[in-house]
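Hi everyone,

Forwarding the result from last night's run.
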Amino acid sequence: MNPGHQQWITGKGSVKANTTSVYGVIVEGHRVAAQKSKDYPYGTIEKQKPHFKELGLDLDRFYSGTLNVSIAPATFTMVNPAYTFRQVSWTDLHPPEDFSFSPCSVKYEGKWHDGFVYYPHPETKRRNFQHSSILEILTEYIPGIDYGEKVEIILRTDEIRLKNSTE
């Protein structure tokens, strides 16, 4: 277990009171975070990282791409994220955007990985929108992970609210 996971997990996988566990499946995203695309001549995360670092969130240890995790039929809402950065001017291709981040942990093949839920605010975003059942996660590079793989995610309930489709 990584030392950072001590804040999220206690004992033998029991979850602390201010966290919840949710299961999801890795799905294909818009393919702009880690590589150049028709919309961007660069990977967006690599271009954004220096701006977030300057604002107080160092993401250098994480892979410059996102894991897109479907938690459908559940959806999520950011309610009180650890970090929110307003009007980040990270590209000259469109106006500045707002971003929020909430710490999380991802379990894949029995190993936990620290990360952040990465949330570009849809109200300031121009393209590549995600459905509210897709968590975009920044974490270290995880060898072998692929579309269709199941993962467990631990989220902070004081920062992210989950809602089942039946509610």
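The first helix runs from residue 44 to 54.

Cheers,
N.
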